[in-house]
Design a protein that fits this description.
By secondary structure, the protein is α/β, with parallel strands linked by helices. Helices cover 44% and strands 14% of the residues. The chain has eight helices and seven strands. Strands 3-2-1-4-5-6-7 form a seven-stranded parallel β-sheet, sandwiched between helices. Helix 4 (110-138) runs parallel beside helix 5 and helix 6 (197-210) crosses helix 7. The termini are far apart. The relative contact order is 0.15.
C-alpha cells in the first residue's frame, strides 16, 4: 500500500491582519515588522526616531503600512500613541522596547524600577486594554513580547532589567490564561546574543572594562554559545511571524529562547 504524505504549505496567511510593532523601525523590532509584512500583514510601527520610521516603512513589502512616532518611555508618549490607535483595529501586538540601564540590583533606585516598569509593563498593559475588545470580537488576537533570556536565568549586572523582564513574563502568562478561550495567544520571545547595535555596544563595553580588543570580547561571548555564532534579527522575525499566524493557535503562555542554546535551563 502506497503511503501518501501531504505537506501543508507554510504560507502564514496574515493578509487580513493588522500588526502593531513597538520599536519596529530597526534591530529586532525592524526584523519582526519586515517578516510580518512579508507574510501579508498590514503593519504599524512605533519608535522615537521619525527618520528611521519613514525609512523602514518604505522598505516593507506590500502596502497600507504606517508609522507613529512615540516615546514609550514617557507617559505623554504612551498617551499620544493610545490616542492615535483608538480608531485602529489591531490583531497582532508586538511589545518590544529597549532594556533598562545595567547595574547591580543593590544599587538600583526606586525611580529606576518605576521608569523600567512604566516603559515595559505599564505600556504593554495599556495597549492590551485598548486592543483586547477588538480581538475578542474577532475571536483572534496575538500578543508577542520581546523580553530577555533573563526570565529563565537572571543575568549578572542587570538587576533592574531582570526584575522588569520577570514581571513582563508573569504578566504574559497570567493574561494568556485569561484570554485563551477567546482565540487569543500571548507568548514571549527571549533573544540571546543577536547581531544588533545594542549587542555591539555591549561587546565594546566589556572590551573596555576588561582592557581587551573588541574582537577578543566578541570571541569570548561567542564561546559561550553552543551554536558558535551570534543570531540574526531575521531569525526572531521568522519566529514572531509564525507565532502571529493561525498555525500557532495552540501555542500560548510560553517563553521561547532564541539564543543558539546559550541559556542553561530547560
Amino acid at each position: 500500500m502506497q503511503l501518501l504524505i501531504v505537506l501543508e504549505s507554510m504560507d502564514l496567511l496574515l493578509s487580513d491582519k493588522h500588526a502593531l510593532v513597538c520599536g519596529g523601525s530597526k534591530g529586532i523590532g525592524g526584523a519582526i515588522s519586515t517578516a510580518l509584512a512579508a507574510e501579508g500583514a498590514r503593519v504599524t510601527i512605533v519608535a522615537r526616531n521619525e527618520a528611521d520610521l519613514k525609512s523602514h516603512v518604505k522598505s516593507l513589502t506590500g502596502s497600507g503600512h504606517q508609522y507613529i512616532p512615540a516615546d514609550l518611555g514617557s507617559k505623554k508618549g504612551v498617551e499620544q500613541l493610545l490616542a492615535k490607535l483608538a480608531e485602529e483595529q489591531i490583531d497582532i501586538v508586538v511589545n518590544n522596547t529597549g532594556g533598562p540601564p545595567p547595574g547591580p540590583i543593590a544599587e538600583a533606585t526606586l525611580d529606576q524600577f518605576q521608569n523600567a516598569l512604566e516603559m515595559h509593563l505599564y505600556t504593554s498593559h495599556e495597549i492590551m486594554r485598548l486592543v483586547l475588545p477588538h480581538m475578542k470580537s474577532k475571536n483572534f488576537g496575538r500578543f508577542i513580547n520581546v523580553i530577555s533570556t533573563s526570565v529563565k536565568i537572571p543575568i549578572q549586572g542587570l538587576g533592574v532589567s531582570n526584575t522588569t523582564r520577570g514581571a513582563m513574563a508573569s504578566w504574559a502568562k497570567t493574561l494568556s490564561n485569561e484570554v485563551a478561550a477567546d482565540g487569543i495567544t500571548v507568548n514571549n520571545i527571549l533573544p540571546g546574543a543577536i547581531g544588533t547595535t545594542r549587542l555591539d555596544a555591549i561587546i565594546q563595553n566589556v572590551a573596555k572594562k576588561n582592557n581587551i580588543s573588541k574582537e577578543a570580547s566578541a570571541d569570548q561571548m561567542r564561546a559561550t554559545i553552543p551554536a558558535g555564532r551570534f543570531g540574526e534579527p531575521k531569525e526572531l522575525g521568522n519566529l514572531a511571524a509564525f507565532l502571529a499566524s493561525d498555525k500557532a493557535a495552540y501555542i500560548t503562555g510560553v517563553s521561547i529562547p532564541v539564543d543558539g542554546g546559550r541559556t542553561g535551563s530547560l
